[in-house]
Amino acid sequence: MRLSLVFPSWAGEFGLFKEAARKVSTFPPLNLCIVGAVAERAGWEVQLIDGHIEGLDLNEIVDRVAGFDPDLIGLTAATPFFRNALAAAKALKDSLDRPVIMGGTHVSIMKEKAFADELDYLFIGECESTFGEFLGQFASGKRNPAIPGIMSRRGGKILFSGEPRPLDDLDRAPPPARHLLPNHKYFLGSMQGKKRYTSVQMTRGCPFSCVFCACDLYGKKCRRRGIDSVMRELELVIGRYKAEHIYFVDDTLTLNRQYILDLCDAVESSGLKFTFEGSTRADLVDEKLIGRLRDIGLIRLSFGLETADPEVRRIIRKGVLLESYGPANRLCKRHGIETINSAMIGLPGDTRESIKRTVDFLCRERELHHVTLNIAMPYPGTEMYDMAERGLHGLRLLEHDYSRYQRYGSAVMSVNEISPDELIDLQQRALIRIYSSWWRIIPIIKRFGLGTVIRTGCAAMSAVLKKKCTRIMSRSASG
Description:
40% of the residues lie in helices and 18% in strands. Helix 9 packs parallel to helix 10 (287-295). It is an alpha/beta fold. The strands form four sheets. The chain has a seven-stranded mixed β-sheet with strand order 2-1-3-4-5-6-7, sandwiched between helices. A seven-stranded mixed β-sheet has the order 8-9-12-13-14-15-16. A two-stranded antiparallel sheet has the order 10-11.
């Protein structure tokens, strides 16, 4: 039996920021690699197509899948790119008439609301425990198996046996099937130049309760792989796949201090040489920890600032003192580590004054090499989505087309009379202001390349000037 796994291209959704988005976010589809590993363990032959990294359009994807002649086709999608995945599903079904299954965060949250006609099955939640069983029953001819996590149809009726149990022992999962990917194509920019890289997950689950996050998909309990398991994967990706850089995709890299110190000891003993990065909280780093991480290869660390306004921080339950960020940024810079602070505008409770406070903070912090400034998106499954639907904290949800739920150049809510158009304008102006600081010019060029910086900057400036001219002409006409 054969399974085709498809990851459609998505960067075009980011409009004028698409080139920067492609360079900063070309993550290997680790979730499909895990699905592929489970399928191979079940005896299936697997094809994995990353249409994004290969720049394939739908016709090229269909041709590639047709050449493999699969018995089943699998897709995945996050909320903003669900439309892309459905378009791929329709094109594949129209051409090949094979059953299509879709998994990922969006369908796991939306369930039957995401069960479009183009799809034959949805896989809800984590796949390692039960997907192999589904494939075994599918191969034997059973098309509606009563297996937890699988949603199917019979005679127009949706069948669902409930969500699968979380995988308590992550070490039981097979290593992601990276041999199915064009590993030589994945690069990430850094201040040390462009590096061949891959992503690695050591933990699942997050104990925190930020209103904008849907990481409850993995639960509040943090499950960790054994250090030996992590080391085997690192040895594999560095030795076989020649990865120079690792992106640890854990929600909070330094959540368990001793676990990370044990990892440092293991990497040091192994003699493995690589660089890496991750994200954590500004109150979960200290001198010893950062020094040890730097010694084994840490070159970039991101802290989730979200907002510099105390009241907005309280509303979104960002349980980190604002005073933690300056020392954390300075600590990283002192150790030669690139620092990123991620922030959002349009959050619950935001006003023009609170947004200015956040942008002012980001402009003042000279220790910051990079800033991400997103427009807040009320993704389904988050408490912020419920707030927006109920009109709490000044929010008003105006758009239910999930393809519009982008973080750059798009806004789907108003907040305290700040319209979506104004939020987009504020974002573009803020990014120009933030990256016009002379101390950020070299880091951003090193990360993205001079050509990308110039083209994206010119596009953003052009958009701002165009809007300004439109407003002037509108006022003139009305006067």
